[in-house]
């Protein structure tokens, strides 16, 4: 398992905004998960009109080959294959009048589908 420190690594797999970390931690605690070991897994999977889509879920612990980072108290797990697609991305949480939820800002995307749910690099 590799570990990237949020403030010490010049090339983290992803970054997480304070708003996203706060919301994810609240949801983790609501599920009764131990935030000292559990975390948010951010991954890429096949699917959607553009070919790839983002996935997120809570995991009780990291896998052996995960990159593990911590942002604002939130542990984030990224597997090696997903890191190739989302390296340099930022996870944010928006709660506006028209949209509420997590959003990945990915500098590697060359095109997205019309609904914004899938992408191509």
UniProtKB/TrEMBL annotation:
Gene3D superfamilies: HesB-like domain. Pfam families: Fe-S_biosyn. It comes from the Archaea. Residues 14-117 form the Core domain. This is HesB/IscA family protein. It comes from Halobium salinum. The lineage of its organism: Archaea, Methanobacteriati, Methanobacteriota, Stenosarchaea group, Halobacteria.
